[in-house]
Amino acid sequence: MMKLNHVSFIMDGNRRWERASISEKKASGHEMGLLNMMEIIKYCSGKIDEISFFTFSSDNWNRSIKEIYKIMKLASKYSSLLIEECASMNIRCKFIGDLKNLPDFVYEEVIDIERKTKNNTGMKLYIAINYSGRKAILEACKSSFYKHIKSGKSSIDMTESCFSSEVSPFSNDPDICIRTGGGKRISDFLLWNFSYTEFFFEEKLWPDFGIKDFEKIISKCSSIRKNLGS
């Protein structure tokens, strides 16, 4: 049976869920998606060592200003709740991506969350925001090269482990990645880390993806044996 050390989520379908909403007071798909993420976090706490969520791609800046603003305001709105939940479950939260180019009010919240949860010793939660897998690899190349040159070493001496420590903050690469919304692509997420990841592509939109759906996927993992190329 595959032991799940790290589960990754590509949360697709928030906008389609909102458009399909028939409630009198139209719910925000992004807000429902965020609340669903919180439920998944609660479920995973104490069961899995690491979880990661793809919340906002660097390519998402191509969306309308109105939608981007709504997403960023939601991120700020729920920052206090995330801190409270992390404190109650002893979760350490770390953000990955081009954080310094986020709006100032979001960047400040991100730094505050990381600071207030850094001493927690339970599950590690990674939230990818303004993230690009290609850019992460490029920046890791630059950083690794600079450190080698500065230390007097040749770039020829660079090893995979040295490079990996620059591009990836994880203790474990994702064992499984779940993408909702019917798409069958990874959309520039964790390109360095998905070498042996098992993918599960779900038709349900992210706000509709529940704990029972997650448990069904976990049960499927009991029949998967990872041989890592052997």
Automatic annotation (TrEMBL):
What terms describe the molecular function in GO for this protein? ditrans,polycis-polyprenyl diphosphate synthase [(2E,6E)-farnesyl diphosphate specific] activity; magnesium ion binding
Top-rank taxon of the source lineage equals Bacteria
Q: Record-annotated residues binding substrate? A: 13-17, 26, 30, 57-59, 61, 63, 179, 185-187
UniProt-listed SUPFAM superfamilies: Undecaprenyl diphosphate synthase
Q: What class of enzyme is it?
A: transferase
Q: What are the recorded Gene Ontology BP terms?
A: polyprenol biosynthetic process
Q: Which InterPro entries match?
A: UPP_synth-like, UPP_synth-like_CS, UPP_synth-like_sf
What EC number(s) has UniProt assigned to this enzyme?
2.5.1.-
What cofactor requirement does the entry state? Mg(2+)
Q: Which UniProt keywords apply?
A: Magnesium, Metal-binding, Transferase
Residues of the active site: D12, N60
Which Gene3D superfamilies does its entry note? Decaprenyl diphosphate synthase-like (3.40.1180.10)
- Whether S-adenosyl-L-methionine counts among this entry's keywords is no
UniProt binding sites for Mg(2+): D12, E198
What does the Swiss-Prot or TrEMBL cofactor note state? Binds 2 magnesium ions per subunit.
Q: How does it assemble?
A: Homodimer.
Family per similarity comment: Belongs to the UPP synthase family. Z-FPP synthase subfamily.
Purpose of the protein: Catalyzes the condensation of isopentenyl diphosphate (IPP) with allylic pyrophosphates generating different type of terpenoids.
- Its recorded name reads Isoprenyl transferase
